[in-house]
Amino acid sequence: MTTVRRVAWFVVVSLLVAFYCDPQCSAAQRFPDYPVHPAREYTVKIAKEGILVAGEPVWEVDQQKKYFGTNLRAGGYLPVLLVIPCVLTAVVSK
Predict the structure, then answer these.
(1) Is the C-alpha dihedral spanning 5, 8, 14, 19 positive or negative?
(2) Cβ atoms < 10 Å from Cβ of 77
(3) In whole angstroms, what is the distance from residue 64 CA to residue 56 CA?
(4) 78: closest CA among 47, 56, 53, 46?
């Protein structure tokens, strides 16, 4: 084996070991479910042509860290929960 191949092999094995040992790399992070309510209960909502859309911005940094694992506002983002219920009352046939 040449020196370049040995170094490349060492780097690959080292990365695999690091990813395997680090729980954040070996498994997806788990976050608690955001508390969702019926769309009609939100203060910000709009209904048009039978479709109801409700939204709730997540302003608080502690809530962002709890549900997203980071402060999104620091990066210029504002997460918004959108609730669009299925209100189909009849089966549509072809």
Answers:
(1) negative
(2) 12
(3) 13
(4) 56
- Exposed, middle or buried, 54 (CB in 10 Å: 0-12/13-18/19+)? buried
**Lookup result for tokens 């983002």:** 77
Instruction: Give the residue extent of every domain in the chain.
Output: 1-28, 31-94
Read off the pLDDT of each residue in 60-73 and give the average, rounded to a whole number.
Answer: 90
Quick: pLDDT tens for 26-51: 456 777 888 889 989 998 999 888 88
The three-state DSSP-derived secondary structure of the chain is: CCHHHHHHHHHHHHHHHHHHHCHHHHCCCCCCCCCCCCHHHCCEEEEECCEEEEEEECCCHHHHHHHHCCCCHHHCCCCEEEECCCCCCCCCCC
CA 59 – CA 7 distance, rounded (Å): 48
